[in-house]
Design a protein that fits this description.
alpha/beta, Rossmann fold, three-stranded antiparallel beta sheet, 8 strands, globular, binds adenosine monophosphate
Amino acid sequence: MRIVLVGPPGAGKGTQAAFLAKNLSIPHISTGDLFRANISQGTELGRKAKAFMDAGDLVPDAITVGMAKDRMSQPDAANGFLLDGFPRNVSQAEALDEMLTTEGMKLDAVLDLEVPEDEVVKRIAGRRLCRNEDKHVFHVTYSPPKTEGVCDVCGGELYQRDDDSEETVRRRLEVYHTQTEPIIDYYKAQGLVVTISALGKVTDVTERAMEALRSDRAAQA
Ligand code: AMP
């Protein structure tokens, strides 16, 4: 399956993507994770991306699209992938369509995670990530680690993302509304959008998402 996950910052895209990708046996491709990996490895691409990320802005398409295409061309993505954080504007969606058409492929679904704005701010402000592995995510209130500041999974140090500060979150939300939300209409026109509520327990949201994808598949068959 080829799936795009959309939703505002703090909707839990990364967390859900990790579970869904595992359930569906497809790789989880997050452009945000790819940028952060480049930053921690000190690459030229990471250096270019960092200033945009710290400001809460989108990294320019000229950098992002090539990086995403490279990752989607890896052998593990030949039979499907779950995209998290890409595309993030209509021109990236067009570039993705073009790439898929060239390869004779198409998307199966666009899963839209809905969450109210005040909840988004609460979720992001309390979010803590593990320095060893971005996919080990905690929340100071909703899913606190057993020991404050320490990852339950691997013992790594927990930290707050530079772009999770309140000021940057507001900018990221504005960018989401003005640049990313239009892709939902773009994909609605292709009949691909499946919307679910991202409220509630992580496992409940995953189950809701799996069920929505199953019904969508059945309806298309
Ligand atoms: P995320 O981890 O998905 O929240 O992404 C963190 C930041 O990385 C975003 O706020 C952007 O600055 C940048 N980023 C991630 N994906 C994209 C994308 N598809 N296009 C442009 N910038 C992106």
